[in-house]
Each structure stands twice: as structure tokens, then as C-alpha cells.
Amino acid sequence: MEQNKNIEVFIAGPEHEVYVDTILQTIADAAKVRGTGIAKRTHEYLATKMKEAKAVIALSGNTFAGFSYIETWGNKQYVTTSGLIVHPDFRGLGVAKKIKDMTFSLARTRWPHAKIFSLTSGAAVMKMNTELGYQPVTFADLTDDEAFWRGCEGCVNVDVLHRTGRKYCICTAMLYDPEELRAHQGTG
Question: Taking the model in full, what pTM does it have?
Fold first, then answer.
């Protein structure tokens, strides 16, 4: 597909709300194909992320190519990069990496001292997270903000999370801790 060569990735704004239903459908379709869970989000939730400049979108002209958003938890001590999705027509082109890099930079710029975390069951996201400096951690190392954990209720694997007392699940928890990184750099 020739249009794949012209994919732009940028911070989403209110003008991108027209893509929200396509984003939500792409996320739902991907979850079905993978047989894994994903936190369910509403049209209004994603539109709000766009209005707050807490989302990144990839477009090829006017065609949706990919998306992700960030959210703060625990009194802004934690930030998640969430909902990373690339439309099937644009997979394998490096779009996910560009989106992930931009959400990470956005989170670091807006909340430079916050710990950034990601829950994923995908090897590609784990690889991207590792390249950015995330480390695998236990769920106990993540936010205890109940609002975050309610997002897992829509996941097909939520029973595992409940059975284990929220100690682990199917997803891998990964954390970027800027303070820990600074401490290691200072001793190196």
C-alpha cells in the first residue's frame, strides 16, 4: 500500500475525535484475534485524552494508522502508556515504535519524576519497553490507585487478577523509574 510511506505520528487534539470509534473497534478486533484482554474504554474517555493532549495518533493522510494515550495515577506519581494499537493495514512498518516513543517522551516531559508503567501481554511491546529502559516488575511495584485497577475489569483475564489478590496476571508489568535510573547513573 503506497500510502504507508507517509505515516505521521503526533499528539492528538480535539480535531481527532472523528477517529475514536475506529480506534475503539481496532482495539476490540485486536483483542479478539489475540484472545487476550484489554481495558475497555469509552468514546468519551478517548476523546477526553485527545482534548487534554494526552494521546498520540498516527495517520496516513486521513486514514487511521495507530494510537496510544497516557494517564496519571496515584497523585501523578505514576503514568501509564496505554491502549497502544496499530491498524492491521499498517503493522510491520514501525508505527507502534514511533507511537510508543512519543507517548514515552510525552509522559517524561509532562511528569519528569513520575514512574511510567505498562501492562502488556505482547512481546513487541515488551521489547519496545525494554529499549526505553523499562524493567519487568511485580504488580506490587505499580500504583495502588483503585481507579487504575478498575480498568482491568473489562479484560477477559480479570479472574486471574482477582484469584491472585492482584499480585500477578497474564500481562507482564514493566516499570520505568527515573529516580532509580538517576541513582544507577550516579554510581556508574
Answer: 0.87
